[in-house]
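[Meeting: bench + compute handoff]

Bench side (C.D.) handed over the final construct sequence. Compute side (W.E.) agreed to return the predicted structure before the next meeting so the bench team could plan truncations. Sequence as handed over:
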Amino acid sequence: MNRTDNGKIIYIVGIAGIFLVVGLLTFLYMKNRNDNTNTTNADREKVSAEEGTTEDMWLKNLEENNTLELSRMSHENRQTVTGTDYEAFDNKLCAWWFKRNDNHEKSGCQEDFDIVQYDAYYTVPVSEKRMFITFDCGYENGFTADILNVLKRENVTAAFFVTQTFIRDNIDLVKRMKEEGHLVCNHTVTHPSMPSKSVSEQKEEILKCENYMKEATGYDMDLFFRPPKGEYSERTLRLAKNLGYTTIFWSMAYLDYDVNNQPSAEHVVEHFSKYHHPGAIPLIHNVSKANHDAIGRVIELLKKEGYSFGSLYELKTNPCQ
């Protein structure tokens, strides 16, 4: 055998060795990858088994009043709809109204159409004495911090429907709301009558407020929407639903929004005493001095009547009315 033949043999053996090493490394890499994948899947199955279903997770976080986790889950499970022909939905302006009664039963309401089909509610469907306090916050009038102090002292959580202007001017207050377990919900950018706006303008009012909330505070907005002035149409309700929002009206209210024409604190307490009912969603304005002066007494009254205070997220687990 000459040197040329020896060179060829060495070359062939070298090439074969390289292929052998590459093949072995590839085998080991794929085996390790599969092992990791199997471990990950096993871990996921274990976590899923420990946490239970999504319904179980909703209920667990509701029981613990873990509103930040509920907000996160709401965004992760958000369902949006595109391609809707909004011209097919009536845009006739409706102004929310309800029928008070003083026998502590669920209030009646407008009967033009069933709002629940659009994920819209004015009460929460519970039979026990449970109240769902909501505040509308268009701007600040010096009372919100004190209201938060009372809610914290009484261990009561509420939902605050805020405009972009309120967020912009009161970032620390909004952060405090989230940090203390309250919901911070959407009340649009400029507080317009929604049926007067085009579909694109309505989307901007809602989504711009939501996005600003995240940018300014670092917190997600809770996906509940209150139409400014209580003005709506089938089209506006459908659009809010398509954006992943639940629309919230109210079953209790009184004239508290005019800062120059305030009721007395006694009137506020008497109103709650006369019209409270299971599943009630009262509309309360944060700019009202009467509300500021009465809120502690209202909560004390309701507790004496046997009420507990719930979260609008309960609509996620019991949406029928």
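W.E. noted at the follow-up: The two ends are 95 Å apart (CA to CA). C.D. will use this when planning the next construct.
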